[in-house]
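Hey L., structure's done. Input below.
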Amino acid sequence: MIQASIYGRLGRDPATKQTKSGGSMVTASIAVDATPVNSEEPETVWFQVLAFGRAGETLERHSKGDLISMSGRITQSRWGGFGR
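Output:
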């Protein structure tokens, strides 16, 4: 399992959804400034996050543009693109 900590700004208001079991899940997009050391051009990396329980309740109190930090397990999704 890979653990990650991120610090950035919300790109949109968090969205709350219901799970099949009746619980709530909060999703959000976080923009993190990740300018490479030897580069003059700023670079932004976007993270899509899911939060459940108390973490989700805390996240849904924030809104677009808020500066937040999160830590937790990181997973990677791959998308195959067209023609498959």
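The helical segments are 53-59. Residues 33 and 44 are 5 Å apart (CA to CA).

-- N.
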